[in-house]
Design brief:
Blueprint lengths: L12 H5 L6 E5 L4 H12 L3 E6 L2 H13 L3 E6 L5 H9 L6 E4 L14 H29 L4 E5 L12 H21 L5 E5 L14 H14 L8 H12 L10 E2 L10
Helix pairs in contact: 2-3, 2-8, 4-5, 5-6
Length: about 270
């Protein structure tokens, strides 16, 4: 009978697993919300972070936050629906270890009132923008022979139906399929591809009602969660860091669901 040796104790192994020192991360949607929180946390873990967004002032503010905590930031003022702009920005990275495709928009309309232009606009940002980021990141990682991590941003909307969320939910469901498909295509090169599917998170994107209606909406969403609260951008940033780091080195093609327990799929 073979007796397995007990693994030797390695101090600070857990901390080292999340250390991104010497690595480069690229975050879209970095001017606010989940994107900003993710960019700041990846920088705190040691990565040089390239921040991309349409909001130039927001990008500037994110870079200030990163630099104030001793991190290194680069900014790229771009539109994720423009493949050429993304390609140029990614090409400026001497090395790319992590891509976090976070940029997204919200739209709400009943199915019977959804217009072609509404669907096209949401798909262009929430699906095509993620697709372009994934394509450019995978090409760079393959060319550089980097065993990198690509992280997409899905949503709890892929697990539960909701009135008015056809465009948003359909785009995020497409992101999940993109994630799984790409994971099978680049896994043999050591590149991991995973999605994060947040629940209700308090961000500028979800803060689209007047103050009274917003308070009522958040109270309702908090009651839906076994934890009794809505999420904060930092809750999702920690999920992004986990998938970006060596702590998830055996994880690919998966959907990480920090949603407060609102949805519990098999």
């Amino acid at each position: 009978m073979t007796i397995r040796q007990k693994p030797s104790y390695r101090p600070f192994m857990a901390v080292k697993a999340y250390d991104l020192t010497g690595r480069t991360a690229f975050v879209t949607g970095a001017a606010s919300g989940i994107g900003r929180a993710s960019a700041v946390l990846l920088a705190e873990a040691g990565a040089t972070v390239h921040c991309a967004d349409r909001d130039e002032q927001g990008l500037h503010d994110t870079a200030i936050l990163i630099k104030a905590s001793g991190g290194t930031a680069r900014t790229h003022h771009l539109d994720v629906t423009d493949r050429a702009q993304l390609r140029q920005a990614v090409a400026s990275c001497e090395r790319l270890d992590v891509m976090a495709a976070v940029a997204g928009i919200m739209h709400s309309s009943p199915v019977l009132e959804t217009r072609d232009e509404d669907l096209d606009r949401v798909l262009n940002v929430n699906f095509k923008g993620v697709l372009y980021a994934c394509q450019e990141a995978a090409r760079a990682m393959l060319a550089q022979r980097v065993r990198g991590s690509i992280i997409t941003m899905a949503s709890g909307a892929v697990d539960t139906g909701g009135p008015g969320l056809l465009c948003y939910g359909a785009a995020k469901a497409a992101v999940v399929q993109l994630t799984k498909t790409l994971a099978t295509e680049v896994g043999s090169h050591g590149i991991r591809v995973n999605a994060v599917a947040p629940g209700w998170i308090r961000t500028p994107m979800t803060d689209r009602h007047d103050s009274a209606a917003q308070t009522q909406t958040e109270a309702f969403m908090a009651r839906m969660s076994p934890l009794g609260r809505v999420g904060e951008p930092e809750d999702i940033a920690h999920a992004v860091l986990h998938l970006a780091s060596d702590a998830s080195s055996f994880t690919t093609g998966q959907i990480l669901r920090p949603n407060g327990g609102v949805a519990m799929p098999w």
